[in-house]
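User: Hey, quick favor. My workstation is busy. Could you predict this chain's structure for me?
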Amino acid sequence: MDCPICGSDDIEILNSKQKTTKKKYTEEYLLKCGECGHVYKNVISLKKPRPYRLIISEQDKSHKTTIDLSPSDELQTGDTLLTELGQVEVTSIEVGDKRVEKSKLEDVDTIWASSVEIPARIGFSVDLHGDVDSYKLDLERDFEIAPGDVVKIENHIVKVFAKAGVIKRVYSKPVRFNSYDYDLTKYIFKKTKKSD
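Assistant: No problem, here it is.
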């Protein structure tokens, strides 16, 4: 809403009105530029919010719900939405029979998202010279495993690196240390043992 005369964004709202019809709502503003004093009107017309199908992934479960959004808006992967089930991040957008990175909402059939309010579930493997102990860990999303960290997981002390919110699996090898930076044992969700 920059001033059409001087381009300043120092704007004062003198008055505003809202009109609503079945399909649209309109906001009309009477504005005054703080820089040059010019008084002018600006009208914003938007389509009324409507429900969109939303599928939210939470670890091994999916929840089907809807979210009311304005068809005039644009949506892209990575956007964050506040839903009745909490905050989610858009992971995919379905338009017709295609998955797209970005779309006007009026074209969207389904929004796919994952919850950002639950722990990140990651895989963690310990290579035991041919045998592999595999774990699933539930970690806080900002939990960071830095390069060179030495960690304990059950009876293994290993050297690893990664950030929990952006990885799917951590690979590690045992080291001969008795001390470690932190113990991940309490975060184990599931354990499997694999052999080559």
